[in-house]
Amino acid sequence: MGLGIAWRLAQANCPVTVYDRAEAGRGASWAAAGMLAAAVETEPGEEDLLALTLESQRMWPRFARELETAAGVSVDYRDEGTLVVALTRDDAAQLRHTYDFQKSLGLELEWLSGAEARHREPHLRPGVPGAVFSPRDHQVENRRLVRALATAARSAGALLRERDPVRELEVGGRRITAVLTDRGRDPADVVILAAGAWSREIAGIPPAYLPPVRPIKGQMLALRMDPLAPLLRHVIWIPRGYLVPRRDGRLVVGGTVEERGFDDSLTAGGLLALLEGAWRAVPGIEELPILETWVGFRPGSRDDAPMLGPSGIDGLVIATGHHRNGILLTPLTVEAISAYVLTGRLPASLEPFTPERFGGSRAGSKSGNGRKASAEAR
After folding, report:
1. Positions in the chain whose pLDDT score sits under 50
2. Which residue from 46, 84, 270, 281 could staple onto 237, CB 3.0 to 4.6 Å apart?
3. Residue 181, SS3?
4. Cβ-contact 175, 314 below 8 angstroms
5. Cβ-proximal residues to 40 (8 Å cutoff; 6+ apart), any chain
6. Which residue in 309, 321, 325 sits closest to 368, CA to CA?
7. Which residue, 39, 36, 56, is CA-closest to 337?
8. Which CATH code of 3.40.50.2300, 3.40.50.300, 3.40.50.12280, 3.50.50.60 fits the domain covering 2-73+142-210+308-377?
9. What pLDDT is attached to residue 359?
10. Residues 90-124: pLDDT tens digits?
């Protein structure tokens, strides 16, 4: 989020600095799987969020093309679609219930028999009882994405300060005045807080205005397929996980959902659950080498929806809490927050998702309304 917003602000000739405690883009964005699954991830009670995710999903093809042109690299946007696969009759009954709900929202989905699912993906295990095909739920290579955003932001004139964590935000008279790092004090008219699950760890923000975000741990792994003969072409959702094939032959398998704070340990149980679920769906993975294992921290809010817009402190803008939809919501977040910083106007579609809905922040904070300096804390 921070890199994308910086790119847009720099394109508008706004001086902007991105601060990152490590290499830019190496947080939750690096650990993600890059799924753009507005349809198949929608659950009851998320109708407002669905409107937001569908809007961002529609933005993705043009956003990807523009970014690739600006950065000179591919982000591997893929549009083969997504399959949600049932592995047992009980899974099929639950999947049918979910499918009926999602279809009632007008989503473009197709019910497949087991044979039809295996026709699309022949390496699915024999006997799968059914599946749902979502043609508009695509994927992007998230690690290429963050590299491209960093390159595009720099090329547009943004300054990236990597391995330079923000220790504190200076607030005076209920307005942002500066960013404090180990190097010293950098004055700022506007700060976009896009620090994901770490957004509450930056000092200086009064407790009542801290976004209610927490880390949601996810363990993941990657296997190596033959890129010339991959086992899968579609993103595959299974009852407790997903498999995401990459063009270079990597097969990303994820992801556990754990309320463990910032515990970054890989566990036998977590990896076993991922491998067993993937093997039950695609037995051919058994012989694939394990390339990598890792842990990421999704930024979760109290209602699992993003927090976007004014914080209640003049000059402090929030862009966090995206939970499992961070990559999906990137284009919309980038466009909406950068426009808010430059114009002071928040799109109507974001009004249900401001931090003010939690009651801790105050209405009426200003973005900066075109002031020349902007800083992003991460």
Report:
1. 361-375, 377-378
2. 84
3. strand
4. yes
5. 82, 84, 102, 109, 132, 134, 137, 237
6. 309
7. 56
8. 3.50.50.60
9. 77
10. 999 999 999 999 999 999 999 999 999 999 999 99
